[in-house]
From TrEMBL:
InterPro entries assigned to the protein according to its UniProt record, in alphabetical order: ABC_Gly_betaine_transp_sub-bd (IPR007210)
Principal subcellular localisation of the protein: membrane
Subcellular location: Cell membrane
Residue span, ABC-type glycine betaine transport system substrate-binding domain: 26-274
Keywords, comma-separated and alphabetical: Cell membrane, Membrane, Signal, Transport
The protein's name: Glycine betaine/proline transport system substrate-binding protein
Organism encoding this protein: Vreelandella subterranea
């Protein structure tokens, strides 16, 4: 075989190998929303899957309604967070036949109105009796996150059910936390909407206000979810994510690392480097497929 033929053959072989690699390359869209734990775990999985398993991951930050319709329409492949059986049930219901809900990765959430522990009240009715102490921009206010979130809707219900003379101001999670931090540093009363898991409970001394009428519902578990038949398309990743579990220590540590660095990528990478044994346990489930 002459040199020209050898060169042509080598180019052909390289092209074939490259073609196989391209076919094996998995591109996924992970739908996210602006909850602290959602940002944390989405960036964690993006790093693990891209750096260690050759995936190409796009994180798509969307509203709750767009997230569920995107999964149903297969514009989004998966999302790391759905709270069931209560909080996110209304978002899932219109699309329940087009979305696959997978295993639980965090058990025992919390959700409700939260105040600093130095505030001398313990129940939701009591904030109504002390409304003047919680003025923000001239009127009694509950500071919340985006208006399309489940917790925002529950808070509107709480204002009605408890007949609270309050207004809910909806903004982003970071903006709400900035207001909480400012009030906390000055030891002033403030009431915000919060949930567990959240890094705020490690950073500040906070308490949930008792909800005697059960407006915020019972404790939920957090599952991951995907477009229909994702499990058949990617059984390895489905097995890995079904074996993924986090508790307050592991998830709280991940969120705290991100909060301290101020960068979800840098913080998630640091946490990954320090928790290899745990991550390897999750990944081992896929190797058993």
């Amino acid at each position: 075989m002459n040199k020209m033929s050898s060169s042509v053959l080598m180019v052909g072989l390289l092209a074939a190998v490259t073609g196989v690699q391209a076919d094996d390359h998995k591109s996924l869209v992970i739908g996210t929303n602006n909850w602290a734990e959602n940002i944390a775990v989405a960036n964690m999985w993006k790093i693990i899957l891209e750096e260690e398993h050759g995936y190409d991951i796009e994180l798509s930050d969307v509203s709750k309604s767009v997230l569920y319709s995107g999964l149903a329409n297969e514009d989004i492949d998966l999302s790391m967070e759905i709270w069931l059986p209560t909080t996110d049930a209304s978002f899932l219901e219109p699309h329940k036949d087009e979305i696959d809900v997978h295993d639980v990765w965090y058990e025992g959430t919390g959700l409700g109105l939260v105040v600093p522990s130095y505030v001398d009240i313990d129940t939701i009715p009591e904030i109504g009796e002390n409304a003047d102490a919680y003025e923000y921009q001239g009127r009694p206010t509950i500071l919340g996150i985006d208006s399309g979130s489940a917790i925002a809707g529950s808070t509107d219900d709480a204002i009605d059910v408890y007949e609270l003379p309050f207004n809910q101001i909806n903004s982003s999670g970071p903006a709400m936390m900035a207001a909480l931090d400012d009030a906390y540093q000055r030891e002033e009363p403030i009431v915000v909407t919060l949930w567990s898991p959240h890094w705020a409970f490690a950073e500040y001394d906070l308490k949930y206000l008792e909800d005697p009428k059960g407006v915020y519902g019972e404790s939920d578990d957090i599952h991951w979810m995907s477009r229909k038949d994702f499990g058949d398309d990617d059984p390895w990743l489905t097995s890995v994510l079904n074996d993924w579990h986090m508790d307050d220590d592991s998830l709280g540590g991940l969120m705290a690392e991100i909060e301290q660095t101020g960068d979800p990528v840098e913080g998630a990478q640091t946490w990954i480097d320090e928790n290899r044994d745990l991550i390897d346990e999750w990944l081992a489930a896929g190797d058993e497929e």
